[in-house]
Design a protein that fits this description.
Residues 97-310 form the ABC transmembrane type-1 domain. Helix 8 runs antiparallel to helix 12. This protein is 70% helix and 3% strand. By secondary structure, the chain is mainly α.
Length: 319
């Protein structure tokens, strides 16, 4: 009878002991593979950052320096606060701010409320939501020049369709773009029609995310349509409404295209002169880039301060 073997049997399925590895495992290979795998993503990210820096950050930094400089026959000199003094002493300065503030107020009444109402109406319908979404968003897809030409035809005092409708109902015809009291309101109406499609779709997406059980509970409590909107719809979409309010104020404070194309920028008796149009005049009509940069810097500081205050108040309310 043979003695038992001290070596492990192959049938037992055991493996011979492996020699210890020399040092920790290398990570260079995995890092290289990860870098190669994400090289395309890093390339797109770097390109986006460079484009953003060149077209956004650099103009802002350049504007800051231009606000304190003067360019005369190619020679640049530092003038301190002279550009700000020039802007403040311009009679059109306060008129431009007054028109911009009034435009922002009217745009909030129409451009902020109308898309929300349109979104509620579309959300309540049972059929044809897709066609209505396309119809509402169609003005956004049109070029701004085409939309402005359409409204110029509607506002024309001679053969404009709007005055034709007024005449049909026995109402007096209006000088929509020639009357200083109506020109700014006419620009707001055109701007609301041109830009409300995107906001309406955002509101519609927020409305479709509200649980239906909340409306059912409100109906059991006897709430009507207006009470459901006030107690269910608005609280459930408060975050989206707050964000859109901030975006609306920032965009309307920078309005330029609509008054420039509809009324030539200034409008009758300067009634549609906005801050951005005044910046355009300083830069391209008066060749005073320092004053244009100073006014742009004032607008930037105002909007940045408003945004910071708004964010702080929103955080305090959430807490």
């Amino acid at each position: 009878m043979s003695a038992p073997s001290l070596t492990p049997s192959k049938a037992a399925g055991t493996r011979p002991p492996q020699p210890p590895a020399d040092g920790p495992p290398r990570r260079g290979g995995s890092f290289g593979r990860s870098l190669k795998r994400n090289l395309t993503a890093h390339g797109f990210l770097i390109g986006a950052v460079l484009c953003f820096a060149f077209f956004s950050w650099y103009p802002m930094v350049r504007e800051f320096f231009l606000a304190f400089q003067k360019t005369d026959r190619g020679e640049v000199s530092w003038v301190g606060l002279d550009n700000l003094s020039t802007v403040f002493n311009d009679p059109a300065f306060w008129q431009a701010w007054r028109n911009t503030a009034l435009y922002t107020l009217l745009a909030l009444v129409l451009g902020f409320a109308v898309p929300f109402v349109v979104a509620i109406v579309i959300n309540e319908l049972r059929h044809g939501k897709g066609y209505l979404r396309l119809l509402v968003y169609l003005p956004v897809m049109l070029p701004p020049v085409a939309s402005v030409l359409l409204f110029k035809y509607l506002y024309d005092p001679g053969y404009g369709m709007l005055n034709e409708v007024f005449g049909f109902f026995g109402l007096p015809e209006q000088q929509w773009l020639q009357d200083p009291d109506l020109s700014l309101l006419s620009v707001v109406i055109a701007s609301t029609w041109m830009n409300m499609g995107g906001a309406a779709l955002i509101y519609l997406a927020a409305l479709q995310g509200i649980p239906g059980e909340l409306y059912e509970a409100a109906e059991l409590d006897g709430a009507g349509l207006l009470r459901k909107i006030w107690h269910v719809t608005i609280p459930q979409t408060r975050l989206v409404l707050s964000l859109m309010l901030l975006m609306q104020i920032i965009s309307t404070m920078q309005v330029f295209v609509e008054p420039f194309l509809l009324t030539g920028g200034a409008g009758p008796e300067g009634s549609t002169t906005t801050v951005v149009y005044l910046i355009y005049q300083y830069a391209f009509n008066f060749n005073d880039y320092g004053a244009a940069a100073a006014l742009g810097l004032l607008l930037l500081v105002l909007l940045a301060g408003f945004s910071a205050a708004y964010v702080k108040l929103s955080r305090a309310e959430d807490e």
